[in-house]
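Hi U.,

Before I forget, here's the chain from the pilot set. I'm dumping it here mostly so it's searchable later in email.
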Amino acid sequence: MRVLVYDSSMQIRDSFISILITAGYEVVAVKDKNNILSMFGKLPFSIAIIEADENDEDMCNILEKIYLDDRYSNVHVIVHVEDPSREFFTKMMRIGVSGFLLKPFNEKEFLNRFKLLIEKAGVKSKKLKHIVVNNLDNFKLVFRHEGARQILHGMIIEMSPIGLKFIMPPNEPDIEIGDSIKNASMSISSYKISFTINITEKIGNEYIGLFEDLSVFNSKLICKFIYDKYVEKIK
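Structure:
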């Protein structure tokens, strides 16, 4: 299920991205409100979260165009707004807005509120699937493992917001399903990210594991990295 998000705050856009892709939604963020309609023309969306101000006539016109264009009839629009007046609320309902997220943005409550709004709007539930990126260049997983004195290096070949797939060289100590590798690390840009990886699948020398003990900051870094790679593919 693909979600378009627009907000003038980069911090809030990044929060939308990290929360939604971790929950299994595909997300495309728009930085400029004037690009919202053109993005609708490039990709199909089920939901749009759009920041609006009742004094912003340009945004009101954009929302009305979405409502009047039959091509976007299946897009459910959620407006992110601060203290809307009754007149604004009525106007938004008249042009088909499905719900409202009220400012100030609350990161902890956002996902539950979002799910409640799309459920009330009657959005047909689709199986959520985490974004997986595989266009990784020489991306290494570094860790120690029981039975091995030396530091081990795996090659990461896929990554999602909740885990990764990596390959180990031949003749390295065996890793088994159910093993928990603590103090594993990888680098994104200039940041070293540490975590625990729980092994859930093994095929030959390929392993799939889920992240644990991941800080909020590191989780957001991973989500931003995955999002940037994902957007490269759909441009």
